[in-house]
Structures are given as C-alpha cells and as structure tokens.
Design a protein that fits this description.
The chain has about 100 residues and is an alpha+beta fold. The chain contains two helices and five strands, in the order ββααβββ.
Length: about 100
C-alpha cells in the first residue's frame, strides 16, 4: 500500500526584514515564467523591474527585483487580515468639541 506524495511549491521572494518567504501574485509569477523562455537580452532587461510586496509575517512592505523570485517548497503562509481599531470615544465624525471661552 503506497501513497503518492504530491509536493507543493510556489514562487516567491524572501522578506528583506524577517527572511520569511512571501508568495508573489499570480500575475508576477506568470510574467516571470514567460520571461524565462525569452532571449537573454530581453530577459535581462525585464529582470531589472522592481515591485513591492508586503510580508505576511512581519507586515512590512519592501521593494524586490524580478531576479529575487525563487521556488519555495510547501504551501504559502495564509493571509492575515488586520482590522483597524474602532474609535474609543463613541463620537460621530461630524461632532466637534466646543471651546471653553466661546
């Protein structure tokens, strides 16, 4: 009784702050795959393109080059949505404080 193990992998960059892998969006991964099949002159020109990504671990955004994209094993870290804190004083945005000497 044998089971076939399917290895998952994804394309990404390593965070410049915390060194955790950041998956690249599908549009960048697709562009990177099409550029790898082009001539060396046009591929070299496109590898100088810079894009910004936000790390899912430390939540910092840094610029990365297309040449920084590598293959990682496993599945990417799930996206964590951060919510903004609500106003603590329950005032409506249009309410203004009155001056003491008015």
């Amino acid at each position: 009784m044998t089971q076939d193990v399917i290895k998952q992998s994804y394309r990404g960059v390593r965070c410049l702050s915390c060194r955790q892998p950041i998956p690249v969006p599908a549009i960048l991964a697709k562009a990177d795959a099409t550029l790898s099949g082009q001539s060396s002159a046009s591929a070299e020109e496109s590898y100088t393109r810079v894009f910004s990504l936000r790390c899912r671990a430390c939540n910092r955004e840094k610029p990365y080059c297309a040449s920084d994209i590598v293959e990682f094993e496993g599945s990417p870290r799930p996206r964590v949505l951060h919510t903004r804190p609500t106003q603590s004083n329950n005032r409506r945005p249009g309410d203004l404080a009155r001056a003491a000497n008015a």
